[in-house]
Specification:
This protein is about 20% helix and about 40% strand. The chain has eight helices and 30 strands. The relative contact order is 0.08.
Amino acid sequence: MTAQTDVSFEAKVSKQQLGLNERLRIDFIMNQDGDNFTPPSFDQFVMVGGPSQSISNSWINGTRSFSKTYSYYLSPKTKGNVTIGQATIEIAGNIFKTQPIQISITSAVDIPKDPNDPEYVADQNIALVAELSNANPYLNEAVSIVYKLYVSNDVYLSGLNVIDQPKYNNFWNQIIPINKLEIESGTYKNQPYNYVVVSRAVLYPQKSGELTIEPLTLDISLEVPSQRRNMFGGFLRQTVRKTITAPSRAIQVKPLPELGKPDDFSGAVGSFDFNMTASPEVLKAGEAFQVSLNVSGQGNLKLLNMPEFKLSSALEVYEPERSDNIRTNLSGMSGGIKVNYTVVPSYRGAYPLPQVAFSYFDLSSKTYKTILSDAITIDVTEGPVNNTTQSNLTVEKGSTSSTMAFAGFKSQTNMVSVSQDKFFNSKSFWAWLLAPLFLLPIVFIIKRKLDARSADVVGARSKSDWRKAHKYLREAKAAMGESNLFYAALERALYNVLKSKLKVPISELDKNSIQELLVKKRVDPRKLSELNELLQSCEFARYTPSAMDGMKSDYEKAAAVIVELSKI
């Protein structure tokens, strides 16, 4: 550790020798608050919990005592001597480092099975289980996961704290909030147990193949019977604290079939209805009517793209407005999406609205289905007539002789002499003659730029991602005060910027790949650290409410990080 007056920053481990089947706790403790904490690499361990953070701040006899601790829970991968490297922290503008720690890892050790040992009693009477609704879903099919803590009737659960939530990489996820922990009766391994639902979520896999769900880790307090008795002869209970982890779960995600996939399929999976409506259907030129595209049902509603809707150039169409009415529970998303177009006709006439197709993959029949909207005609009864169309006049062959056809015209003319126009060799003459020579290079340059812009597919996508990022950033600002909505929009803004700059699909972005790619692009380490903190805040916000001040701070950080990423 780098020495500095009155500053202490050190690492402490729960043990320096442990078996392969045991766990290690490491705490990084500082006596002054700092920024930009960076843990060492735990590549020789599996992180089963953490990081968790605790702060102690007290005044004793007028003297302030402060302590801040970052804690990690590790499980060793292999036997041997392992070195845990240095952690760093910035305090008052100075960088402090911990000393490396040597850990000896031996073969698996026998855990004492003393029935009177409270630790052993606790281990035998609790279990954390992750229950999946479907281990073999299709891409974008809803999967629910429920974490249940089972406790036998011989012990009493007195406290529970979530140390580490699963990150659900490669899944779109929605946490189903639990307002109050309730003890329910059930069975575990054919024995009567009480259980508490501690976390639940609905997941939509965004990638086919085998996906792994990281474990959930809890810190719990149990009251277990001891050998001591009270004054009435009953056994006294002893408090035992345990760290318990649910095992990782793997699911095999099936890709959607290629056979029968419509050309306009945009990723909708579930069971849906679709229709198009227009109102009013009779109106005057210059008045507006509304066209609505409506999708309703159950499936990945928040993830699907609405079908495209194109109208005649004779109709003025305004930017569409989308409204969602979607509910999410353990069975998935249900509800509806409506997209409203405001349209204004300029001329009178009959305007047929083109039929719109909506395609989706139906989970019940395992086939693709396409719904066509009804044909609608808008009747504009009053207004100017569109005279842009030209009539082609034809003369029927043999209907009249050539002489009779022109009988009404004079056959003789009276010629009048006029003076010759002096246009030739004038300034106007030379201007019109040379103008094309000057215009040709300009037209050539404009055409090259238009061709390059048309061919720049990546650039067009990048601009689209930036527009989405700024849109979601505005949504986050509007939702400030509502933690779930705020952090969901903030996360979408950050991931769209990263997708644009790193040229990687959102489904393939995770914290490790983001870190590696941004380091290669030489992003400012401080901004990289702020980005990591923001993504972590977005994850934590799904499980714990955030204060308004925290949201304002995270919004300002996100705006600054987006500006920094724009310079890559």
